[in-house]
């Protein structure tokens, strides 16, 4: 291997301990010359000294913004490798303009989100929240009233990395799910290759028992599920959101759920966190979780392992598997 690249870690200490536990950190130390300073504020003199020789910046949650100011202090920087999902919030376009490679561990984060979504799809298909509420009141559903998942129509909004993973799992499931897809960037041929039927968003809402959201948070996707589209969903349908809260009109959804017309499984909300006094916290047909669909606990080291493998590829002058290109920014989460 060529000379080890100079690497600076840029994330919070508590995140570093989770993402790069001792075995992964030891592996990283064999691949790169890791600076001892952990950078969270790029404006300090100590950070400037570390950045001056940095060829790789390995970032995580709590990293400083990588803008023109930081790049002026890091003239040798060749790669930003992010040990988490989206880079949109800390990597500025100037990074690509300077020809610096950018990588994200979003692939590693996708698996847990797909697992979480599939779990909620099954719960939603069985109308689990309503059954649980009845059970708390001492009422047992009769067998004719009980719902199963077989044949449920699932509408997937967005053929993103996670959306495609959900589609693959739905089609492989024994339940015989019928899968619809709405995505303006997908062609009919692409949809056929995925094994789904491509429809527009209104048709998807009207035809689905369950709608699961996997689109990016962009100005044009804000309130993608607004009051009108939520009104197209059939009574008893469920909305699952593990993407971004802004894609769903929170107040419109709250009204539909309060009326008992829709169920909701929300791992993300708008705003986030949702105020404790919000009505969604009190509805029996709503499950709220605190943005836990992605890597959690011991799973977080998957992100570190992915990032360390990217450092190795960079050191070997190989293509980065998690490469993020400037043109991707308008379409990624």
Question: What is this structure's SSE topology?
Answer:
Layout: E1 6-10, H1 13-19, H2 22-31, E2 33-38, H3 45-51, E3 56-59, H4 68-73, E4 79-82, H5 93-97, E5 101-104, H6 106-125, H7 128-136, E6 153-157, H8 161-172, E7 178-182, H9 188-194, E8 197-198, H10 201-207, E9 210-213, H11 227-232, E10 238-241, H12 250-258, E11 263-266, E12 286-288, H13 301-315
Structure, explained:
By secondary structure, this protein is α/β, with parallel strands linked by helices. It has two domains: 6-104 and 297-328, Rossmann fold, CATH 3.40.50.720; 109-288, 3-Layer(aba) Sandwich (Rossmann fold). The protein contains 13 helices and twelve strands. The protein has helices at residues 13-19, 22-31, 45-51, 68-73, 93-97, 106-125, 128-136, 161-172, 188-194, 201-207, 227-232, 250-258, 301-315; strands spanning 6-10, 33-38, 56-59, 79-82, 101-104, 153-157, 178-182, 197-198, 210-213, 238-241, 263-266, 286-288. A seven-stranded parallel sheet has the order 8-7-6-9-10-11-12, with helices on both faces. It has a five-stranded parallel sheet with strand order 2-1-3-4-5, sandwiched between helices. Helix 2 (22-31) runs parallel beside helix 13 (301-315) and helix 6 (106-125) crosses helix 8. It is elongated and about 70 Å long. The two termini are 35 Å apart. The model has no long low-confidence stretch (mean pLDDT 96). It comes from Actinacidiphila paucisporea. One of its GO terms (cellular component) is cytosol. Keywords: NAD, Oxidoreductase.
């Amino acid at each position: 291997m060529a000379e080890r690249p100079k690497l600076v870690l840029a994330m919070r200490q508590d995140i570093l301990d989770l993402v790069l536990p001792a075995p992964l950190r030891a592996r990283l130390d064999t691949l790169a010359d890791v600076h001892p300073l952990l950078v969270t504020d790029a404006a300090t003199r100590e950070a400037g000294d570390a950045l001056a020789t940095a060829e790789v910046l390995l970032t995580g949650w709590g990293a400083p913004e990588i803008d023109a100011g930081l790049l002026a202090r890091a003239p040798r920087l060749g790669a930003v490798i992010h040990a988490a999902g989206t880079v949109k919030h800390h990597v500025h376009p100037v990074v690509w303009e300077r020809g610096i490679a950018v990588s994200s561990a979003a692939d590693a984060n996708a698996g847990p989100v797909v697992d979480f979504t599939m779990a909620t799809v099954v719960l939603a298909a069985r109308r689990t929240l309503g059954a649980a509420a009845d059970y708390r009141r001492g009422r047992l559903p009769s067998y004719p009233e009980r719902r199963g998942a077989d044949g449920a129509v699932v509408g997937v909004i967005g053929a993103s990395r996670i959306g495609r993973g959900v589609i693959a799992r739905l089609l492989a499931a024994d339940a015989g799910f019928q899968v619809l897809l709405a995505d303006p960037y997908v062609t009919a041929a692409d949809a056929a290759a995925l094994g789904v039927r491509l429809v527009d968003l209104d048709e998807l809402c009207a035809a689905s028992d369950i709608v699961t959201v996997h689109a990016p948070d962009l100005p044009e996707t804000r309130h993608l599920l607004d009051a009108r589209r939520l009104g197209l969903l059939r009574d008893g349908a469920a909305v699952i959101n593990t993407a971004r809260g802004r894609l769903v009109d929170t107040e419109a959804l709250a009204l539909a759920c309060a009326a008992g017309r829709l169920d909701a499984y929300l791992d993300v909300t708008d705003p986030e966190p949702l105020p404790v006094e919000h009505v969604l916290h009190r509805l029996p047909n709503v499950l709220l979780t605190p943005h836990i669909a992605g890597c959690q606990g011991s799973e977080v080291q998957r992100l570190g392992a992915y990032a360390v493998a990217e450092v190795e590829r960079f050191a070997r002058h190989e293509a980065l598997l998690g490469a993020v290109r400037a043109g991707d920014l308008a379409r990624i989460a």
